[in-house]
Design goal:
237 residues; alpha/beta; BirA Bifunctional Protein, domain 2; eight-stranded mixed β-sheet; three-stranded mixed β-sheet; 4 helices; 11 strands; 23% helix
C-alpha cells in the first residue's frame, strides 16, 4: 500500500474477540509500514478475551491472582491492567514524530482529552489527575474517584502503538486479580456501572467523532480485514 492520503487516518473495527499476541504482532507490522511510508495511520478498535497485561513499570506484587487469567508481558508503558469483553480497546498507530515532534507528553495529553471528550458526549463527566495517567470519574457518595479508562503506549521510531482501554460494560470483578495501574486506593468503574446504557457501537461513533476533533484528522471507516489488521469474527490464537 503506497497510494494513500497522509492527512487521513484509517478507522478499523474487529467484530470478534482478538487474541493479544495476534494483536501485538499485527501492530508491530503496521508500525513498521507506517514508518516506511508504506501504510496510513490507523486506529484499531477491538475487544480481547480476558487477560492481564504487564507494562514496563509493572511490579510483581501487584499481580494478586496470577492463575486467574493469562498474563502477557508487553512493551507498553504503565503497570498491570485488565483487558476483556465489554472493554473497548483502541490501539492507536500514529506518526507521533510528525504530529507532535519530540513532545510525547503532548501526545498522551491528547489521548486523555480524546477519552474525556468522548465520555462527555455520552453524558459522563470525567477528568484527568496530575501524576496519574488515565481518565477518572468522581461520583457523589462514591469517593474516591474511580478509573474508567487506562492509557499505555509505546513509541517505536516515532510511531505509536498500544493505546487506550475504555470500560464500557466489562465484568469489573475481573480487575480484582491485580492492582490496576499500581494504584491500590482507587477503584475502577465503567459506563454500565455508572448507569450509562451506551452500546459498544454507540461508544465507537462518539470515539471517532471526538478523535477527529482532537487530532484534526478525517477518518476512513474500514473493517479490520480491509485495513490489513487481521480477520474479523475470529479469535486468533
Amino acid at each position: 500500500m503506497t497510494d494513500f492520503d497522509r492527512s487521513r487516518v484509517q478507522w478499523s473495527t474487529s467484530s470478534g474477540l482478538v487474541g493479544h499476541p495476534f494483536a501485538v504482532a499485527a501492530m508491530e507490522r503496521r508500525v513498521a509500514a507506517i514508518r516506511r511510508g508504506k501504510a496510513p495511520e490507523v486506529v484499531w478498535l477491538l475487544e480481547h478475551p480476558p487477560l492481564y497485561t504487564a507494562g514496563t513499570s509493572a511490579r510483581p506484587g501487584d499481580l494478586k491472582d496470577p492463575d486467574r487469567f493469562p498474563v502477557h508481558v508487553t512493551g507498553r508503558g504503565g503497570q498491570y491492567t485488565y483487558h476483556g469483553p465489554g472493554q473497548r480497546i483502541a490501539y492507536v498507530m500514529l506518526d507521533v514524530q510528525r504530529r507532535f515532534g519530540a513532545d510525547v507528553r503532548a501526545f498522551v495529553s491528547s489521548l486523555e482529552r480524546w477519552i474525556v471528550e468522548t465520555l462527555a458526549g455520552l453524558g459522563i463527566s470525567a477528568e484527568v489527575r496530575p501524576g496519574r495517567i488515565g481518565v477518572w470519574v468522581a461520583s457523589p457518595g462514591r469517593a474516591p474517584e474511580r478509573k474508567i479508562a487506562a492509557i499505555g503506549i509505546r513509541i517505536r521510531h516515532g510511531v505509536s502503538y498500544h493505546g487506550v482501554s475504555l470500560n464500557v460494560a466489562p465484568d469489573l470483578t475481573h480487575f480484582d486479580g491485580i492492582v490496576p495501574c499500581g494504584i491500590a486506593d482507587r477503584g475502577v468503574t465503567s459506563l454500565a456501572d455508572l448507569g450509562c446504557p451506551a452500546s459498544m457501537k454507540d461508544v465507537d461513533i462518539v470515539l471517532r467523532r471526538s478523535f477527529e476533533r482532537i487530532f484534526g484528522s478525517e477518518t476512513d471507516l474500514l473493517t479490520s480485514a480491509a485495513a490489513g489488521m487481521g480477520p474479523d469474527d475470529t479469535v486468533p490464537k
